[in-house]
Each structure stands twice: as structure tokens, then as C-alpha cells.
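Predict fold of DUF1846 domain-containing protein; 492 aa.
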Amino acid sequence: MKIGFDNEKYLKMQSEHIRQRIEAFGDKLYLEFGGKLFDDYHASRVLPGFAPDSKLRMLLQLADQSEIIIAISAADIEKNKVRQDLGITYDVDVLRLIQSFQDKGLYVGSVVITQYSGQASADQFKSKLEHMGIRVYRHYSIEGYPSNVSLIVSDEGYGKNDYIETTRPLVIVTAPGPGSGKMATCLSQLYHENKRGIKAGYAKFETFPIWNLPLKHPVNLAYEAATADLNDVNMIDPFHLEAYGKTAVNYNRDVDIFPVLNAIFEGIYGESPYKSPTDMGVNMAGMCIVDDEVCQEASCQEIIRRYYQSLNRLAREEGASDEVYKIELLMKQAKITPEMRPVVTPCLERAKKLSAPAAAMELSDGAIVTGKTSNLLGASAAVLLNAIKVLGDIPHDQHLIAPSAIEPIQTLKTCYLGGHNPRLHTDEVLIALSMSAATDPVAKKALDQLPKLRGCQVHTSVMLSDVDIKVFQKLGVELTSEPVYEHKKLYH
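Predicted 3D structure, encoded as C-alpha cells:
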């Protein structure tokens, strides 16, 4: 993989910049943490060289100074909101985050339930957390938020919220997803800290958009593609331009809310510490790009992948056509087409030639391997086996799994477990391969190639089952699919 980003430089610069921001405010800094604290695979895809755990590693350098507050909206608890990337509800994700942070050696001080208005499910969740020994606070819905500044900055606004007890100078406020109330939590704490005579500040840490890259830079366009369902739009920060005469990129939500934030800061402190929403940020990622061309190319590929994801969501009736249209516009701005994804054309040509589902995989050296649906295997399973044969220099016509070993599995699926599809999914193929590897050295050699698939690209001519999608994710393979079901059914 070509490297476009200096990760070690980033870790050093970012942690130092946060330390400087803490010192600038004196006693305490509330840091709103946008995006994923760990497993930030979007950043690693568009900034090759960025480690998925970079933000976590950076925070570990500040572990002795920091504690974490996790915010979750009572409304999201009530409606069982789901994280699309993990397939779990926000309340379950809070437990996952707490465990993950603790396992890494970071201190989780508390959980705050925001936008609380008496929801029974929120009360139950609070009791559950407290039973586990986790401190829980409640922040209430404020009428007229965020416009009614005089009410917000009063004892009947932020003053009604629970004061969250914190003990360390850096307080990181994170959440399972957007709209959880991270910023409101920070501002509420500033109000309470100020009343107690504690000098506290606020800053925002979001990797994207990167403020010192051009507005239409592919890295920033890729962020818009990733948030197409949220309607986020990158824009020039007009407040920064007016204050400093310099161009900086931000996004619509931060720009729109800044006048209100300014008024809230003035209500708390008497004056605002910031002249623009860009001023609030502490992101140093743009300073650590070492090969812009590599990052541009990687970002263009990410936009295409996001395009296919939006098409798939629309086909499954999980997304909206506006999401697709927005990404199509972004592709025009970046001057890219789906065919620029190297695996798309070989996959579609193979499918057309065979009149059957097919798949294509691009290996790390650029070689393209294809696979087709057969009586025994689905296209995704076939391309997986063909790929590890190439990587292991194993003849194409050599069986890694004997047909006699596959047939009993098919019988189990269809006759005993009530399945309708006799072909093996990728997880079933890998289990069968691992069993063969116990006695067959060639199968063992093939199995040993699996780590080499990380970062490889796959395209399929039909949408895959959740099982196959998850296996590719676990292998680190980047998957796209045509927005087509293999079979026309009312229920899939």
C-alpha cells in the first residue's frame, strides 16, 4: 500500500496541540469528540497510513490527564436506534464503548442521558448502568433549544441539568453516534463549572472535513459521501474568513450553530473565546499528509464505495434516493465514475458471459481474480478460494476442499436446518477449509494466505447475504455490490 499520511507525526502533533488547548483555558477542557474514537476505518481508507486506532493511541498519551463521558440521547434509547456499521442499538453500544475504553486503560467517569423528558426506557437503562457501578446523569430537553439563549443560559435551562462530577483536566465527551448531545453536554458543564468558579473551556475534535484542505479536495468530498444520509455539506467558514482573511473548511451544522454558540459563550463567560467554528477545532490531520496524490486517489475510491453502499441501501429500502443523488453529484465534482473501481468491469463482464452471479477481487499487487456461482459455492466463496490459491501459488484446478466434504454440509443446511440455498457461504467455506487444513498441507498453505487479503477490493454482481458481508469485513476486504438481488422475492 502506498502511504500518504505520516501517522507518527500525527500522534505527536495532535496530543501536543490538545495539551496547549488545555493550558490556554486553565483548569479544565471539555473536548467534544466527533467520529469514532477507535476503529476509524474511514480515516484509514482516505488517508493511507492513518492507523484505525490513531485517535485512541493519541489519547493514551494523555491517559493520566483525561476521563471520558459518554452521551446518549433518551430519544435514541426510546426508539432503539441502531448503529448501521455494527448492527447494535445505541444503548448496547454504550456498554461496548465503556468496556473497550476500560480494556485500553482509559478512565470512563460517567454516562449522561441527554434530551431526557421522563422516558421509561431511559430510566431502565440508567438503573441498569448504576447496577453495574457506572455513574449516570440526566440532562433535560430545553424548550426553544438552541435559539432561546436567555432560557438556555439560566437556572431553568442548563441549570436544571445534573452537574457531572469530573476529576481530571481533560474531559472527553463522546457518543455512539451523531445527535447524541455531545456539544450540549459540554456547554451545560461550562455553565455549571463557571457557577462554581472553575475556569473551563470547550474544544472540538473531528477529523473531517479537514479545515486546511480545499473545499472540493477528494478527502473532504469523501467525508460528504460518508455523511450523505445526514445531509452534511462542506462549506467555507465565513466567520473565519471575516476574522482572519483566511479560507478554512467546515461543515454546515457547525457554521449554522456558531452564532448561537457565541451567544451561549457570552452568556456564560461574558465574552466568547472563539471567532469562528474552525477556531474551536483541534484537528491536525491536514498537517500530516505527506503524499497528496495518494490521498486523493484513495478518497476517490472511497466515494465510489460509498456510492455502491447507498445504492444497496436504496435497493433494500433502508436508504433514500436523495442520498444516492448527492453522492452522484460528488462523483461529478471529483470527475470519477463507478468504472474507475478496478474490480467493477471484470466482475460485470464475467457475470454477463456466464449469465450467473460473479465476483472479482483485486489483490495487493493489482492482479484481478474472479469467481462464479456454482452448484457447490456462491460467487463470493468462489472468489475467496481462487484468491488464496493465487496468493499461495496453488494450481487453480486443485481442490482445497473435496466435493465429498462439501456435500454433507449442504445436506445439513437443506435437509436438517430447513435452508433453501444449498451453496456454501464464505463462513461455511472457511470452516470447511480449516477442517481440511488439519490433514491436508495444501489446504493449510491456502488458509495461511487469509491475512494477505486485508485491504483487497471485491465487487459482486449481486447483493450478498449479511453473513458474507460480515466475513469480508472481518477479513479486512473492501466490498461493493451491484444493487441487485440474486432472486426476485418478496422477502429476502
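The chain has two domains: 7-213+248-288, 342-481.
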